[in-house]
Design a protein that fits this description.
With about 270 residues, the protein is of the alpha+beta class. It has two domains: about 1-145, Fructose-1,6-Bisphosphatase, subunit A, domain 1 (Fructose-1,6-Bisphosphatase, Chain A, domain 1, 2-Layer Sandwich); about 155-260, 3-Layer(aba) Sandwich (D-Maltodextrin-Binding Protein, domain 2). About 30% of the residues lie in helices and about 25% in strands. The protein has helices spanning about 1-15, 40-55, 65-70, 95, 165-175, 190-200, 210-225, 250-260; strands at about 30-35, 35-40, 60-65, 85-90, 105-110, 115-120, 125-130, 135-140, 140-145, 155-160, 180-185, 205, 230, 245-250. The strands form three sheets. A seven-stranded mixed β-sheet has the order 3-4-5-6-7-8-9, sandwiched between helices. A hairpin with a 2-residue loop joins strand 5 and strand 6 (about 115-120). The longest helix is centred in the first third of the chain and has 17 residues, at about 40-55.
Amino acid sequence: MLDQVTELVREVAQTVVLPRFRRLSDDEVRQKAPGDLVTIADQESERALTSGLTALLPGSVVVGEEAVAADPSVRDRVGHDGAVWIVDPVDGTNNFAAGKTPFCVMVALVRDGEPAAAWILDVVADSLTVAEAGSGAFRDGVRVKTRGDDPGADQLHGVISHKYLPGELRDRVRANAAGLGGFSAGKHCAGYEYPAIATDEQQFGMFWRILPWDHVPGSLIVREAGGVVRHLDGAEYRPVDHQRGLLVAANEEIWHTVHGTLFPDGPPAIDPL
């Protein structure tokens, strides 16, 4: 199954997504929400992945980003019994539409509400990161592990995706983040940020808006590489979660170091959705 999905993801990336890169006409890009674009490549990629994945696993269902945009109730399928595919047909659409990299194709298989496997393909780099629950994480066929030590807050580098953070919390987090070794707003592509933690290119990531197609594939990869993926209150992240706020770290100690640096007075109060 891993190899078959890998072949499908690569095929869709090469035949549907990449041919549209830097070749989109104005009528092939639209705004589905303020600052949130969708392109013809997103739509065609999701259709191809949906058809291919359900053929590989009869009886399975798909939760795709564009299907949820058209019908929000589709997201409720994530928690269904049985096999559920979670699909981000083009992760980093704004980059893709602007003719920039990175952008990825991401797929996760969820069984009975828990991640079972994940695939993230960096389309232009043609670099594939995969994970299977209990079997580890691999990048281009080589097993990857997060770093095992905690060098201290001033040596840790990562991403704080503050685009959707409420204003007061954003200001507080950015001020406290001065105690870390370095941070950026990221590359606007979760498919880049998660593997970067799994391979120690960076040691942490903080995100506010939590959508399953953005975070389920990467969360399994980071955990299988030895990392930690939790909400800001310390609860383990699960595919069915709607709660805002997520802190990803290379290991348990780094999670607590980054969390304590960003939130010295304890986790922020978060209104339920």
